[in-house]
Amino acid sequence: MSDDFAPTNLTNHFLIAMPGLSDELFAKSVVFLCEHSERGALGLIINKPSTLLLPDLFEKIDLELGREDLADLPVYQGGPVQTERGFVLHEAIKSPDAEAEDESVYSSTLEVPDGLELTTSKDILESMATGGGPQQVFVTLGYSSWGKGQLESEITENSWLTVPADRAIIFDTPVEERYNKALGLLGLQPWMIAPDAGHA
After folding, report:
1. Which residues lie across from 53 on neighbouring strands?
2. d(CA 152, CA 173)
3. For range 87-116, the mean pLDDT
4. Phi and psi of 79, rounded to 5°?
5. Whole-prediction pTM
6. How far apart are alpha carbons 160 and 39 in whole angstroms?
7. Cα(3)–Cα(1) distance, integer angstroms
8. Who has the most CB within 10 Å: 129, 184, 197, 199?
9. In Å, how far from its chain's centre is CA 54?
10. pLDDT recorded at residue 156
11. Gap between the Cα atoms of 132 and 141, Å rounded
12. Taking 50 as the threshold, does the pLDDT of residue 1 lie above it?
């Protein structure tokens, strides 16, 4: 491939693991890409819950979760990088007194297209502790990242399928259905991509 072509920007896309991907964490995973540029990519696995629930995570940082609606929410394994650090994917919340129109309420936030944000600062957890914060939240420990050209190379090697993300799969779909629902966005079912598909 020549350098004349602009690389595809897969921000706000799902990566769906192909059956050949045998890495324990990434096997049968769906990754939501929060950022993708020529420098690399950053995303969160959305279908691998950890054994922690959100109240357990809050307890670890000496906060009490002040939101009944989130009491049963699992904390997910977002990926193998910085697994001791929390990442909160949520609907964008704008500060009423922000200087800039698109300024986030929280101190360390990455804006993701389609009205989402990824926040890594503790202030979002503090607002949830007092009963506030965004309505829709998806919390992980750790994230997934790819260096320059690495993700493109894995896609070329048939490790991943890609499809524009549907936020309902992240926030509203039961975790055990997310892989199949993400495949469904491509009009596929798991048996169609099975390694032995088509060999009777």
Report:
1. 74
2. 28
3. 77
4. 155, 180
5. 0.89
6. 19
7. 7
8. 129
9. 16
10. 94
11. 21
12. no
What domain range is 21 assigned to? Answer: 13-193
| Whether 110 contacts 104, CB under 8 Å | no
User: Could you report the per-residue pLDDT of 116-150, keeping only the tens digit for each?
Assistant: 999 998 999 999 999 999 999 999 999 999 999 99
Is the residue at 4 inside a domain? Answer: no
- Residue 114 backbone class (left: φ over 0; alpha: ψ -120 to 50; beta: rest): left
Buried b (16+ CB within 10 A) or exposed e, 31-50: bbbbbbeeeebbbbbbbbbb
Residue 98 tokens, joined: 């922000």
Q: Does any domain span residue 173?
A: yes
Cα distance between residue 186 and residue 13, in whole Å? 12
Tell me which DSSP letter residue 157 carries.
T
Distance CA 43, CA 142 (A): 10
62 vs 46: CA distance, rounded Å:
26
pLDDT tens column, 47-69: 999 999 999 999 999 999 999 99
CATH of the domain at 133: 3.40.1740.10
The span from the CA of 51 to the CA of 15, in Å, is 23
- Residue 198 inside a domain? The answer is no
- 63 belongs to a structural domain: yes
Give the other-Cβ count within 10 Å of 146's Cβ. 20
Instruction: State the DSSP string of 111-151.
Output: EETTTEEEE-STHHHHHHHTT-S-SSEEEEEEEEEE-TTHH
* Three-point CA angle 191, 192, 198, nearest 5°: 100
